[in-house]
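Key idea: predict the complex, not the pieces.
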Amino acid sequence: MKIKSIVTPLDKVNVDTDQIVPKQFLKLIQRTGFGQYLFYDWRYEQGGIPRKDFILNDPAYKNSKILLARDNFGCGSSREHAVWALDDFGFKVIISTSFADIFYNNCFKNGILPIRVSDEILQKLFSTKSEIEVDLEDQIIMVNNTPISFDIEPHWKKILLEGLDDIAMTLQHESQIAKYERSHKT
Amino acid sequence: MSKTLFEKIWDSHIVVDEDGRSLLYVDRHLIHEVTSPQAFDGLRLNARKVRRPDLTFATMDHNVPTSDRSLPILDQTSSVQIKALERNCKEFGITLFDIHSPNQGIVHVIGPELGITLPGTTIVCGDSHTSTHGAFGSLAFGIGTSDVEHVLATQCIMMEKPKTFEIKIQGKRKNPHAVTAKDIIMSIIRKIGTAGGTGTVIEYRGDTISELTMEQRMTICNMSIEAGARAGLIAPDEKTYQYLKGRKYTPNNYDELVNDWRDNLKTDSGAKFDKSFTLSAENIAPQVSWGTNPAMTDDVTGSIPFPDEYGKGNPEEVKGATKALQYMDLKPGTPIVNIVIDRVFIGSCTNARLGDLIEASKVVQGKKVSSKVRAMVVPGSQLVKKNAEEMGLDKIFKDAGFEWRESGCSMCLGMNPDILAAGERCASTSNRNFEGRQGSGGRTHLVSPVMAAAAAINGHFVDVRELDLN
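Result:
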């Protein structure tokens, strides 16, 4: 997995999943088509007119695949719709200093790579105007020909790189699950 | 080796350890209409079954109307989602408490109420407030829809072991009717921040916690997620066992289980937590949130902060507070008691249980809601509603001018018709004051049920310690 793109800097801390996808769009019963609702209340005025001052409406970032975020991104509601919306909109990588737990998990389940970096590196990325390249295999972010390494849990790396079905993986443990069920009281 | 309560529950649910993660067995899986349809579609697509429909329970709560239930649901998209849950439960053999069931209600209210929630168990639900069930000493946490599908198919969840976080609350509250469980948990979040618990399971301990009722403990555990924690736990005690006795799904061998729980479900002395925080309950005041996340909170006697002072030199926090005040249309220095409100919402999985309604009714009894305020009570479940009506609480609220509605999540997240209009300001007993949470452009102040009730009567916030609540 290699992603090369300019970065979209979303300069705000504690962005919650209610902002990523407002509640009025959670009533759909499929996983697709949520991109149009991404950051809806920040993207549009009432009546659906795009807000000029919101970063996602800036044509310069139109084809960006990498979102830069601040601390505690994805906090609040467990709604996976937030990740479906980011993915459908075109973001494949999110870089921040920290993510909320449920959101972090949901990303991997949908093929999005969330990367945790230090404050200092995030600051550097926020000031980058040129394209960067994220290489999951080597765990490197290339910024102006300078490589920055990042950490990722090995199992998540494997799941993303190999596109594994985690339910099928768990079902390989069928005999242990059945054994547990036989011995467990509640 | 000494273990924390969390470690005991974790260890007893490991099916397999693999790659630094554990496959954990899930004892109870709760589902609702909003985060499950895509999971069932996934099962069908891969010709998979629900492994343990007998351990899976469903209700509809998020988008159901709270008005007359004999009428059809007008919102077509809500109706589609509700019908999808009915269809899915039927197809996969899952027990459903539907909109007409006497057991319908907010999933985190009905779980304990029906005895589905039990000490020492693991519970998951596609909802972040699943942490509520931790009040019974169960390891309970919210999951995304992909994990809902995973649990439906396998009855297990693959997880990295969270860290442990001890929060000790000690001392007597000066006025326990005015300073509630909600004020305790909001004080904690205010101090540790909305990411203070990230990656951890909190265990709430100390004499203040022991004194709380089960309902009050649920309020505490419910908001663990607002501090970013994976789950919140309270060790079970005699109050816990008493509460669950004789409920609809309490197991037949309950007394035997209780004996076992009494022996095992506690943190051993000498067990180490990864992190600790201590709070004295003695000086806690009623809390009111002023911003757009639950940590942006102050005492009712306080004033709206200046962003510089709130951010304490962190430019991102200063920016966040400035933007929050803009959204909330509040000026720094304004006393909180001067904030005038338009709406009052008493409800949600945080504060819509019988005890909450009893406490709020004491403030309301014999008084009238301010002519400038529209106020509603949305009981957490049909059973709460029935019990409250038997006590005559509905009459107290209605006589005062409150709307008395059917159970559901309602205006906590505004997925049904109960929403704020843009610019409306609400005193709400719910858990999140995020931008637009209760309606696009709506402004939420999180408070306890007594604070919400007093605000409804007065039209602005008041310090409920000044009222006679006994």
